[in-house]
Each structure stands twice: as C-alpha cells, then as structure tokens.
Amino acid sequence: MYKFVFFVPESHLEAVKHAVFAAGAGKIGDYDQCCWQTLGEGQFRPLSGSQPFTGEQGQLSREPEWRVELVCSAAHIRAAKQALIAAHPFEEPAYDIWPLADV
C-alpha cells in the first residue's frame, strides 16, 4: 500500500479526485472514494519558460489549494499517478507517494 498526497486548486478538486478514484485509489476495505482533504495555501514563482495556470512569470504567488490524502494499492499506484497528471490543471502538479509499512 501507498499513501498518495496531492495538491489541487478548488476549481479542479472534484474532477481530479474522480480521476484518481477511477484509477483505483482511495479504497479501504469495503469502502471506496476514501480521502482526507484540507484547505491550505500554496506558494510558487513561475520561472522563464513556464506556463502557469495562475500567477505570472517571475512573480511570487500564493494561492488557496486543497491537500488530498488517500491510500492506494501497489497494483493501482502508477495508474493513479497518471490519472492525477492527466486531470490536473497545473503544468507541474505537486504530489507525494510514500510506501506504507505493514506492521
């Protein structure tokens, strides 16, 4: 199992979650579409050559973003990552994937 965490603007929150769930992430026992989400603030500065979804090149930006955490089986983690990238509006979506210990 893996913990899969990503950050997404509210405008795309439900669409990105739907894509990741459809790829097999977010299942716990007899439940699906399981996740934890919380609102926070992302900070970034687009560099030359970037095509930012929000903000302008060379300018520091702070935007509200949702942090979404869920679990994903090893069998589905690659598909879930690809679904995130395909559905996400950012040129470079931020995400983490951590293996979970079986204790």
From TrEMBL:
Name of protein: YqfO family protein
Organism phylogeny: Bacteria, Pseudomonadati, Pseudomonadota, Gammaproteobacteria, Cellvibrionales
InterPro entries (alphabetical): DUF34/NIF3_sf, N-reg_PII/ATP_PRibTrfase_C
